[in-house]
Every structure is written in structure tokens, then in C-alpha cells.
């Protein structure tokens, strides 16, 4: 099958540091290539892939401080994909609703994975208008605010099986927070849970400019507490040691998390997750096996005390059973095949071969 993967231009694919969507696009692209498909990745020029790379913009927008209008490069991205659309069996977009208007008029089957939060009022008229555009959710819970959308399927994220692995030689000695400093991620909650559990906490987190005022007012004063160590943003190579050294990953979110990639990153390292019961959490964490799902700070502290009852080997095993990139790619291929069946289009590579 000839497949186009269309990534956001904000980060490289894969990103050098933080970047959930671009990271998932990379894992999916590489897994599709390994399965034998012909894949073209539309992304920034500093991306790395074994697929064909169509570099629409020279580098990730995040790395170019001169870029003030990030929509403009994405308009060029859409036009480049439109020009090449007939080369592909299916177009797979990862750029929110940007392609809806243009590509709903195109004959080539296309699908958009919705990676972000969907409980925003301004999205309602978009999905009322474009309620025939095929979309994929990354958890069933993510769909809740938009029942009118044309949901093709849900595909949970996955990681390459050997990307992050346990480091059994590292003795766990702290609780961990990994991700982004923002009001909805509640690193302040994680700091308080660790304090009440009598454990140190290490925080590896990205800080966006949009959240700097929140950081200065709410989070920075907490970082001076004796049990807190702020590590800053870490890369992929640093994650296995960071997560393996943790008794658990704390995920005390305060929003309807669409998926939460850090949860399966922790699981890949054999590290249990203590997560608040919000959004996708019950679909990702098997309570009592790969971690604990909690309702509040009190139950989170109690869950820390119950961590010795969990097997880190079982946590890793559950990752291998449910969250590999190969499984993710196979489920997307099934979705592509359904789109082709509905459109009654032959597969291009089969036509050329025949």
C-alpha cells in the first residue's frame, strides 16, 4: 500500500525532545515501513525517517524564533500534499482539522487522527459542518464531546518494542514526573503527593512560553522544597534510566487527557503508573497490574504505599501485549483497508504490479 503520513511542522519527526504527536507519527511511519508498505512522510526537513521524506519546511517551527505565523507553513504543507495526492492509496493526516475543507473534495481516501483535546466549544461547528470526514480517536474517551464526528475507529498509541527498556541494575529511589509543566498536568499535585508519601520526586518536564507565567507563579516556588529535584526536559536516550530509577510515574492530571504517551513510556521501562481517573487513563492503565488509578491525593498517597505489591516484569509484559508500535500500525492498516473498501478503489501497488 502507498501511504502518506502528514505530520505537524512544529517539531521534527521524531522530535529531539518533547513532542507527543510527532513522536507517534515517527513510530507509526517506521512500523508501516517495516510491514512492507511504501510510505512518504510530509514533515519538516530536519526529520529522520526510513520512509521517503517530503520536506515542506526546512526545520521544525519550534526551532525557528523568526516564525510568527505557524499557520502559513501548514498551508504550504496542505498544498504540497494536494499536488501529490493521486500518488497514494490513502492520506493520513495528523494536523487537526486543517485538511477537512480541502480534502473532503478530493477522491483519494483520507483519514485524520485527532491527537488533542476535543472538549472545546469552538470545535462543535467544525464537526457539525464536516461530519462526514473520517477521523480516528486515540482513546474512546476522547470522542465524548464530539459524538457527531465520523469516527472510523480508535487506535491506542504504541512505541517500538525495544525503544525503551527496563534497567534492572538501577534501584528505584524516587517518584517521577515526566511531561510538560502546565495547569492541566498538575506537577504541583505530584510534588504534594510525593511529600505526603515521604519520598523524593524528580521532575523531567518541558516548559512552553505559553505556560511561563503559570510556572513562575505556581510551580517555581515549589521547586525549592527539599524533596524536589527539577531535571528539566530530557530526550529519548535519557528516559530509560530516569523511569527505571522511579518507584512509579505520577500522572495526576486535571483534564480529559486524550491518551498520555508518558504512561506507556513508563510501562515500557517496567515502571508502574499512579494516575488520576481522567480521560483515557482507564483505557491505558490496568488497575492493580500496570499501576493504580486513583481519584484524589489521599488515594494517590495510599497507592504509593501499595507499589511493592506490583511486579515490574508484569508492567513491562502488559506494555508488550498492548502498546507496541507494530500493533498500532496493524490497526491503522486495517483502517486504511476499510477506507479503500468503502471507496472501492484498487491498491496502487497492486495495479502497477499487475
Within CATH, the superfamily of the largest domain carries the name Glycogen Phosphorylase B
Q: What is the count of helical runs?
A: 13
Q: Using the coordinates shown, work out and report the CATH topology of the largest domain.
A: Rossmann fold
The spatial strand order of the largest sheet comes to: 3-2-1-4-5-6-7
Overall geometry comes to globular
Q: Can you count the beta strands?
A: 13
Output the CATH class name of the largest domain.
Alpha Beta
The share of residues in extended strands comes to 15-25%
CATH-derived architecture of the largest domain: 3-Layer(aba) Sandwich
- Structural class of the secondary structure composition? alpha/beta
Report the C-alpha radius of gyration, rounded.
21 Å
Low-confidence stretches: none
Query: How helix-rich are the residues, as a percent range?
Result: 25-40%
Give the overall pLDDT as a whole number: 95
Q: What pattern of helices and strands is seen along the backbone?
A: EHEEHEHEHEEEHEHEHEHEHEHHHH
- How many separate domains? 2
Q: State the major sheet.
A: 7 strands, parallel
**First CA to last CA: what distance?**
14 Å
Description:
- The protein is an alpha/beta fold and 354 residues long.
- It folds into two domains: 2-158 and 324-353, 3-Layer(aba) Sandwich (Rossmann fold), CATH 3.40.50; 174-322, Rossmann fold.
- Helix content is 34%, strand content 19%.
- The protein contains 13 helices and 13 strands.
- The chain has helices spanning 20-34, 71-84, 100-103, 123-129, 187-197, 212-219, 239-244, 261-268, 281-284, 297-305, 312-322, 325-343, 348-353, and strands at 2-6, 38-44, 52-57, 90-93, 110-114, 134-137, 150-154, 174-180, 201-206, 228-230, 246-251, 273-276, 291-294.
- The longest helix has 19 residues, at 325-343.
- The mean pLDDT is 95.
- It comes from Chitinasiproducens palmae.
- One of its GO terms (molecular function) is glycosyltransferase activity.
- Residues 18-119 form the Glycosyltransferase subfamily 4-like N-terminal domain.
- Keywords: Transferase.
- This is Glycosyltransferase involved in cell wall bisynthesis.
Amino acid at each position: 500500500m502507498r501511504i502518506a503520513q502528514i505530520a505537524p511542522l512544529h517539531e521534527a519527526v521524531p522530535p529531539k525532545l518533547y513532542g507527543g504527536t510527532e513522536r507517534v507519527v515517527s513510530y507509526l511511519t517506521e512500523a508501516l515501513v517495516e510491514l512492507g508498505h511504501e510510505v512518504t512522510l510530509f514533515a519538516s526537513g530536519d526529520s529522520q525517517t526510513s520512509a521517503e521524506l517530503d520536506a515542506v519546511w526546512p526545520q521544525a517551527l519550534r526551532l525557528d524564533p523568526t516564525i510568527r505565523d505557524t499557520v502559513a507553513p501548514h498551508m504550504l504543507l496542505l498544498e504540497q500534499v494536494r499536488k501529490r495526492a493521486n500518488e497514494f492509496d490513502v492520506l493520513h493526516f495528523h494536523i487537526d482539522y486543517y485538511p477537512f475543507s480541502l480534502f473532503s473534495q478530493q477522491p483519494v481516501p483520507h483519514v485524520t487522527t485527532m491527537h488533542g483535546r476535543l472538549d472545546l466549544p469552538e470545535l462543535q461547528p467544525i464537526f457539525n459542518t464536516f461530519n462526514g470526514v473520517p477521523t480516528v480517536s486515540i482513546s474512546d474517551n476522547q470522542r465524548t464531546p464530539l459524538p457527531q464526528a465520523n469516527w472510523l475507529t480508535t487506535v491506542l498509541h504504541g512505541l517500538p518494542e525495544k525503544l525503551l527498556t527496563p534497567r534492572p541494575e538501577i534501584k528505584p529511589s524516587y517518584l517521577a514526573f515526566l511531561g510538560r509543566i502546565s495547569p492541566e498536568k498538575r506537577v504541583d499535585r505530584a510534588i504534594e503527593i510525593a511529600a505526603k508519601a515521604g519520598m523524593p520526586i524528580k521532575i523531567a518536564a518541558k516548559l512552553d512560553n505559553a505556560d511561563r507565567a503559570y510556572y513562575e507563579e505556581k510551580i517555581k516556588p515549589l521547586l525549592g522544597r527539599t524533596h524536589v529535584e527539577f531535571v528539566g526536559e530530557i530526550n529519548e536516550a535519557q528516559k530509560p534510566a530516569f523511569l527505571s530509577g522511579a518507584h512509579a510515574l505520577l500522572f495526576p492530571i486535571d483534564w480529559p487527557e486524550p491518551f498520555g504517551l508518558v504512561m506507556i513510556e513508563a510501562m515500557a521501562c517496567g515502571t508502574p503508573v499512579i494516575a488520576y481517573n481522567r480521560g483515557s487513563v482507564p483505557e491505558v492503565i490496568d488497575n492493580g497490574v500496570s499501576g493504580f488509578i486513583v481519584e484524589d491525593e489521599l488515594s494517590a498517597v495510599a497507592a504509593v504505599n501499595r507499589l511493592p505489591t506490583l511486579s515490574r516484569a508484569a508492567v513491562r509484559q502488559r506494555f508488550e501485549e498492548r502498546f507496541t508500535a507494530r500493533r498500532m500500525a496493524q490497526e491503522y492498516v486495517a483502517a486504511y483497508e476499510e477506507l479503500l473498501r468503502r471507496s472501492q478503489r484498487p491498491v496502487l501497488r497492486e495495479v502497477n504490479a499487475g
